[in-house]
Amino acid sequence: MHAIPHPHVHEEHHEEAGFWSKYVFSTDHKIIGIQYGFTALCFLFFGFCLMLMMRWQIAHPGVPVPLVGPLLEALLGPMAAKGIVSNDLYNSFGAMHGTIMVFLAIVPLAFGAFGNYLVPLQIGAPDMAFPRVNMASYQFYVLGGVVMFFSFFIPGGAAQAGWTSYPPLAVAVPTMGQTFWLLGMVLLITSSLLGAVNFIATVIQLRAPGMTWMRLPFFVWAQFVTAFLLLLAFPPLEAAGVLQLMDKVAGTSFFLPTGLAVGGNLANISGGGSPLLWQHLFWFLAHPEVYVLILPAMGVVCEIIANNTRKPIWGYKSLVYAVLTLGFLSFIVWAHHMYLTGMGIRIATFFQTTTMIISIPSVIILTCMFISLWGGSIRFNTPMLFVMAFLPMFGIGGLTGLPLGFSYSDIHLHDTYYVIAHFHYIVAPGTIFALFAGIYFWFPKATGRMMSEFWGKVHFWGSLIFMNLIFQPMFAQGMAGMLRRMADGGANYSTAKNPDAIGGLSAHMMELHTYILWAAVGLALAQIPFIINFFWSISHGTPAGSDNPWHSTTLEWQTPTPPPHGNFAKAPQVYRGPYEYSVPGHATDFTPQNQPD
């Protein structure tokens, strides 16, 4: 299928938009991308702060949080009496940390920010297919975030049933926080669905002349598959969220079984519902959601590898077919999160098999990336350093997931710190490192200025070291039997409190909590150079010097900097693939896609 050519030329005069229409209610995909990016980074910071307070409580149970303890008590009342993170507040922080990081920070940054800003530019489009829908998507996202944030300040506090919101616990918790969580999730899912439809329509319909499917940058392919994952996986969870909301406020029993006892008394409910139904609906979204987190990051990594090795990505078609396969398979592996629910051997075997199969396209993608480094003239700038770290960190996250895919080993590792370490290796030094790389890489296109290389490298090395110091010990803790979601970090199951217990957590395993806490503090300090570098460079950074400071081949670098309304002075014509670097006989080591033969 060929793209529809753009019939209009953007050389005519555009009336200058006012502040509100330009920056608040904008329909320009670039402004919306920046709005998503800034908001998501704020939520990323907030979620990180929740994690720091949780780690303090785990390492020092019952001890007031230093510096911010009095503020916590003033804001949150009895749940933070004397500045101490109570067990209920720990549960709220745990539930909201996971929710905020996944649904309000990383996905909006990877899909909403990078996708909105770059996909139309990379395919040669003047904007998204539905600009007002794009604006509505961001507004639903902000509204959902506001609902989630203000749930901390209502009586009883925010949601306490984990980021998975399993019933019947989620319905039985005596706080309105869970209701706010469900309302917020419905708004966030609506935002994602609007964005997904827009991305799919844009990539199919608005590609520039000559931009055939196999000339798309891999970043666009990754965003395209991600949009399909969101479009197909989110509706079941949105429906489930509405049903759980009815269980919470309208007395229904979609997920509440007959004979449910709460606090030693039979619950006054009609019964007949199934808690396992919620798990199926939740994980049918939440496992594709893992690939929603990682696929845009893989797209960023491929763009930066090709640019900084000065050679084409190895196995471009293999990458495309692998990411399409990954998208399909992600819908038939969800129940490996549910081996402990009494699942039969046959169905467990099916999900074990699909879980092992889905590792194959992931390995193909990672292998293509590694082979692309071979023989390259590698430029070790800040974006490339983050990308180089992404490769082994994602590898560790993927390999440690294999034991969780087998039911016989998952029985021992399920809900332990091992799972936390595995997932965070995928998302933290995996996805977040790739997103940092993308920020450093595309910053000059958005602002016309470069971020500081020196402070970028300080940020990188600090983040890499402390990320590993945080999550590596958790593998050992998990294999020792330390369970997650415990406000005291498992102290009640330690040999210190139970000297005669068989299998109790050793003093060494408990001491690791303190080391992890200070590693988390070190990681927080390592982000200070990034924050200062980011805001300082917007107005004081070294000028990029050209529209294409990285000497890149894709279309976003062939526009003025920053790109104007409509992106291109005239509709571009594409003549070649996205990664024509170091082509023999060419005058330069890069050949832009819109350069005629």
Task: Outline the secondary-structure elements.
Layout: H1 19-24, H2 29-59, H3 69-76, H4 87-123, H5 131-150, H6 169-172, H7 177-205, H8 218-249, E1 261-262, E2 265-266, H9 275-309, H10 316-329, H11 345-373, H12 382-405, H13 407-413, H14 417-447, E3 449-450, H15 453-479, H16 507-526, H17 528-540, E4 542-543
Antiparallel strand pairs: 1-2, 3-4
Helix pairs in contact: 2-4, 2-5, 2-16, 4-5, 4-7, 4-8, 4-9, 4-14, 5-7, 7-8, 8-9, 8-10, 9-11, 9-12, 9-14, 10-11, 11-12, 12-14, 12-15, 14-15, 15-16, 15-17
Quickly describe the structure.
This protein has 597 residues and is mainly α. Helix content is 61%, strand content 1%. It contains 17 helices and 4 strands.
Question: Care to describe what's here?
Answer:
With 597 residues, this protein is mostly helical. It has a single domain, classed as Cytochrome c oxidase-like, subunit I domain (Cytochrome C Oxidase, Chain A). Helices cover 61% and strands 1% of the residues. It contains 17 helices and 4 strands. It has helices at 19-24, 29-59, 69-76, 87-123, 131-150, 169-172, 177-205, 218-249, 275-309, 316-329, 345-373, 382-405, 407-413, 417-447, 453-479, 507-526, 528-540; strands at 261-262, 265-266, 449-450, 542-543. The strands form 2 sheets. The chain has a two-stranded antiparallel ribbon. Strand 1 and strand 2 form a beta hairpin. Helix 2 runs antiparallel to helix 4 and helix 15 (453-479) packs antiparallel against helix 17 (528-540). The protein starts with 18 loop residues before the first helix and ends in a 54-residue tail after the last strand.
